[in-house]
Amino acid sequence: MKVYFVTGEPSGDLLASSLMKSLKNRSSDVQFFGVGGETMKDQGLDSLFNMSELSVMGFFEVLPRLPLIMKRIKQTVADIERVAPDIIITVDSWGFVGELLGRLRKKNIQIPKIHYVAPQVWAWKKGRAKKVAKLTDCLLTLLPYEPQYFEKYGLKCHFVGHPVVENNMDDVDANKFRKRHNIPEDAEIYTVLPGSRISEVKRLVPVFKKALDLIAQKTGDFFIVVPTVETVVDEIKKAFDDTNCRIVAGRSERYAAFKASKAAIAASGTVSLELVACGTPHIIAYKFNTVTNFFADIIVKIKYVNLINILCDREIIPEFTLDECRADLIAAKIIELKDKSIARAMMNDAAEGFRKLSPSDMHPSERAAEIVCQMIAANANN
């Protein structure tokens, strides 16, 4: 069984790696090909090229990368033709994989295609739902309300849930983390997560560092931990070389840092769900460059950007986005979270949304793997 994966984001890399693990549990002869990151590599993928080349968000941020992105699309199409896989699974990163799937359609490449993670058509660009239906055979969604936007165009959809609910945090030891990194037991730790794209890190680190300075002025000294990923590790080291912080890598170190932390400051994304799973109070913050910020404020018409807030239809995890992504606002909210009753109430409410991310007694990645195998079998019998 040959499975071809394509993703361009660390969040997609995590989702795909969980699916790969479940596929290996189902079949001893599964082979993986395609484009992915470090956690997919741990599951046996030899990526066609470095996924970090695709990790960029925002119209004006993408423009300089377009020649390279188009080159990578052409390269990926050629590799798919060479491998002739049993199925193609694209994960998130619709900007890249949408163009890739369009090329495959023009070439009339008749291989079953699954897209994992629905484009956020409920937030903006509703017309993408029709395009997704044309370019792929099946959509796996993370959220329960998403299938309705695509099924009306005849696309087969399955709400499989979010694999973050599979993470077992019982074995994560905060005290051992402190000992490994020479952090006293009574010292406060704040985790900082400025994103998984270089452009995000460059924009958000100055704001986050200023917020940390303001917090220190009000509360005294503390330790900073910055979990990072392969795509931005060099940029993170450069950005924090003037601070007394611990830079860590790998999923286990990441979760241990969350468990040990008083609170976290994070870029918007899947990391918020990971923080909820670890019971870590946090805020999310995000902004683009000035021009993209302006257009995003006009085009994107949603009440919330955080998944927990969307699922519960109220702000549980504080959001500081676009023009509100300011150090003073972030610092004030983090200081407020020092109150244990406020922090506890946030995490209790967040657990309500978290429970909605799993549709059944089957793990999301296991359900996704079941659907993948069913599609391969059905195609083989045709």
Question: Which descriptors apply to this entry?
Answer:
382 residues; alpha/beta; Rossmann fold; six-stranded parallel β-sheet; 17 helices; globular
Task: Summarize the structure in words.
- β7 (189-193), α9 and β8 (223-228) form a beta-alpha-beta unit.
- Helices cover 48% and strands 15% of the residues.
- With 382 residues, the chain is an alpha/beta fold.
- It is globular.
- The longest helix is centred in the middle third of the chain and has 22 residues, at 198-219.
- The protein has two domains: 2-162 and 358-381, 3-Layer(aba) Sandwich (Rossmann fold), CATH 3.40.50.2000; 174-357, Glycogen Phosphorylase B (Rossmann fold, 3-Layer(aba) Sandwich), CATH 3.40.50.
- It has 17 helices and twelve strands.
- The strands form two sheets. Strands 2-1-3-4-5-6 form a six-stranded parallel β-sheet, with helices on both faces.
- The model is unreliable at 290-299 (pLDDT under 50).
Give helix and strand order, one letter per element, not per position. Answer: EHEHHHEHEHEHEHEHEHEHEHEHHEHHH
What gap, in angstroms, lies between the N and C termini? 16 Å
Question: Proportion of β residues?
Answer: 5-15%
- What is the third-level CATH name, the topology of the largest domain? Rossmann fold
Number of domains: 2
Number of strands: 12
Lateral strand order in the biggest sheet: 2-1-3-4-5-6
| Helical stretch tally | 17
Helix content: 40-55%
Q: Could you name the CATH class of the largest domain?
A: Alpha Beta
- Integer-rounded radius of gyration: 21 Å
Given helix and strand content, the structural type is alpha/beta
The CATH architecture of the largest domain can be given as 3-Layer(aba) Sandwich
Mean pLDDT, nearest integer?
Answer: 88
